[in-house]
Amino acid sequence: MDCEQHLLPALLEALNDDPRNYGVRGKLVAAIGELGFRNHAMTAALSVSGHLIKQGHILPALFVLCESKSYNGFSSPRIQERLQFLHGESVLSEQRLLEDTFEHGDLNRKPIEDLDPDTIRSLTVEEQVAAVVEFLEEPAIHSARGIAVPMPLFSEMNCQQFMTAVPDLTYHHVEKETAIISAGDVADSVLVIVSGEANVMREGERIARLGSGSVVGEMALLNKSIRKVDVVATSALSYLELKGADALAWCEESPEFEEELRRFCNNRMIQNLIRTSDLFSHFDVATASMLAQSFVQETFQGGDILVSYGAAGQGLWLIAHGQVEVQIPTAETAMSKVATLGEGEIFGEISLLTALPTTAQLLAKTDGWALFLDKSDFEELLDDHPEVAEYVKELGEQRVAEQAQIAKS
Predict the structure, then answer these.
(1) Rounded to whole angstroms, how far apart are CA atoms 5 and 37?
(2) Which residue positions in the chain have pLDDT lower than 50?
(3) Domain range spanning residue 126?
(4) Can you say how many angstroms the Cα of residue 77 is from the centroid of all Cα atoms in its chain?
(5) Shared domain check, 272 and 198
(6) pLDDT for residue 311
(7) Phi, psi of 18 (to 5 degrees)
(8) In this structure, are residues 165 and 154 in contact, taking their beta carbons and an 8 Å threshold?
(9) pTM of the predicted model over 0.85
């Protein structure tokens, strides 16, 4: 009972130190539910989520509503109606931004004093809950209206699909330095970061930084492979988790959801390639961003020839899903496999860097898709960056010499 008496006052102390911290407000809501005050917790959840939606913070609002599962409030009509409203606001956000039809200014807020933790501590738990619920009816000081950012993945669903999918989500709070994904684990979920930051690490080296709205884990899930990276929180972090079986079922239910999941997967592969490949190391950040947008998705089926031997090189292939064989001629009509490429591997560097014809055939072994960078788009960027063009020329000569050495051996 003594612990219950101090639960809300301790959170109020944290909130008074940072009055605009809606993460702490969300924890107050969950604490009210934890104390057994289901209806009060739902009322507070509706207040806090409503303030977040008005400010454009859709994912944190979704997190607060998902937490209502912990006190059996999720299935209530009031929470369900708020979820439908939240989805609608997210879907309409892009249109409102284009039309500039969203409201501006601070949220309406009645004058209200911060709750004194010592005063609250002297009350009964029931009195504490009533005081906190009343306090949470008002938004944090200086809370401004904002346009909603579309939810990653979920905004691509229609409302019925979204309402069917949300019960499958689980919610998590972790502290700084917690690994939310570990290399070597089986890929069995996709994570959506709600708040906080995390580093993506490969063999001890940071290859990416993630923040609110980032989706992680989709590459290994779509490719049914083992995790290849660690994802470690660099601050207190909240995230939503989609179990792998549920995510794949949603892909079957909603082609738009699958397309969005692929988009996140593709973008991450492209960014990883640009960060780690010598080919792109001399481009500045702005040019690298333009380069990333030049990749296009190309689907293939087993048996398709993506690149013909001896043809004029068309560009660079980055395999996103599936397997392809690299083949070279061993007789006048026979082709022999020399390598199999899979997720994250590339083909066509020499074609991109030089005017030489292709030195191998690329044959799809399975169904899948790849990301293709057209040579003309690459050369257009080089025209604007002569210093990079010189480096690329030297790199091309180096790659040709390396391949000639391999052929001799």
Answers:
(1) 14
(2) none
(3) 2-151
(4) 30
(5) yes
(6) 87
(7) -145, 75
(8) yes
(9) no
